[in-house]
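Researcher: Please generate the 3D structure of the following complex. Treat every line as part of one assembly.
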Amino acid sequence: MKRYYQPEIETASREKILEIQNEKIVRQVRHVWDNVPYYRHLMEEKGVAPEDIRSVEDIHKLPFLSKADLREAYPYGLLGTDLKNCVRIQSTSGTTGRRVVAFYTQADIDLWEDCCARAIVAAGGTNEDVVQVCYGYGLFTGGPGLNGGSHKVGCLTLPMSSGNTERQIQFMMDLGSTILCCTPSYAAYIGESLAERGFKPEDNKLKAGIFGAEPWTEEMRREIEKSLGIRAYDIYGLTETSGPGVAFECEEQQGMHINEDHFYVEVIDPETGEVLPEGSRGELVFTSLDKEAFPLLRYRTRDICVLSRKPCSCGRTHIRMSKPMGRSDDMLIIRGVNVFPSQIETVLLNEGYTPNYQIMLDRERHNDTFDIYVEVSPDQFSDLMSQIQRMEKSLEAALRTMLGIGPKVHLVAPKTITRSEGKAVRVVDRRKLHD
Amino acid sequence: MAITQLSMFLNNQPGQLISAVGAISGAGANIRAMSIAEANDFGILRTIVSEPDRIYGLLKDQFLIARNQVLAARMDDRSGALHAILTVLNEANVNIEYMYAFTGTGPEEAYVVFRVNDLESAEQMLNAAGIATLTDQSLKL
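Model: Done. Output below.
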């Protein structure tokens, strides 16, 4: 069985990888300097010129890019090539304010799909496999990324998209899917749904799953593996860097190999921006080494991770990252969707509420529950129950539109939201208690 | 016309009702009638109290409280009395949002409280049909 999709790169020596990276970074910095005035300006402000970057050793001299930059430069400010060379956009969920639109040339799509293909082969995929992709298709990168990777490997690809569990199960059983790609919570849900229908783990033909787009734990991995009778692999990525496949797990299941020939990785101190040595816990920063249309340099992911260069028994030489251990900002990942408390605040103010609210997250049957407690203000209250219930429904709809995910709203009396030391506790995340 | 009702938004938790009732009694008011509408997370306590405007002023900073007019129709304590009232409202095409009842101070005297979509015409129709309605003054709270 083929163990690597691109063995010459995936198992290249450290020297070879550095050589590739050094060659690419010089070219990439020049490309950005010439084509992305927004970043060129940041470099000039920092007093860095393209000549100063002669190898990846010099990357630390470059300025960071943050989500705020992406917002400011929206939509075309970070575009690295003419639109006529672009063939696709993908976008994050989130609001107009937070939305990220990433552009791709055909070469960008190819490298992204190569990364996903590496992940599929690492999970044991070959052209004899039937890959069921139930990540969302469309603007979300999950579906298109794994779909493309699956094509590259030559697997029979089932472009299911998310939802409609009944149909997922029917296709899975009738067509004998062997590899499942979706969010871990959905995988767990499919596992339970199969059990409810009387299927045993050995009744399906699945052998592996590639699960990402949301945080999950080792405990969850074991449960999914047991309920589906598979091995469950983690995959990491973000729209800003391309999508899933920036890093992926091999059979060792001990961290995710970062595709270092395409992405240069650093871990920094989120407070000072200082680059931390391997093994330190800090914020993950990616530099895309060869993307054309959306060539982000030193993009701060806000994900807190640890990197490891320990040799891996799978033979891959690329550095490994831990599962993200948290965020250096207040972003929440709920059912795979990025949610910022500030978005909720915006909706509340728009709808005439005070910004007194509390987000309560929990996990029920492996699925995130998302409740928001909101204080009602005197001018909103009337003696009519129907009117209050209408308000509640309308707030839920407005939140769903803003967030791309539907919370359950609970209206409460003023001054009931817990305040600690006078400051309201905005987020109660009880999901961690179960992990 | 009509009478003043005070409604309070209460979280659906132990201790909420007693603190609301305690605040009303602490202000020296008498609760003549009350009902509770309940949802999952909260309830609405609707009350007819003595001196509603004074109580409203005292409680409004402490509670989520609303003040509005409701219809209180005099009802004899006998079979068919409510039906007669509803017949009048039905013929006038008045929609009832909610209702509750309380007894008066006189013998065989009861009142039914209505929240309707068109209070003014409902009251006129009832009065025209010989059914008395209360005002804050006539209730003599």
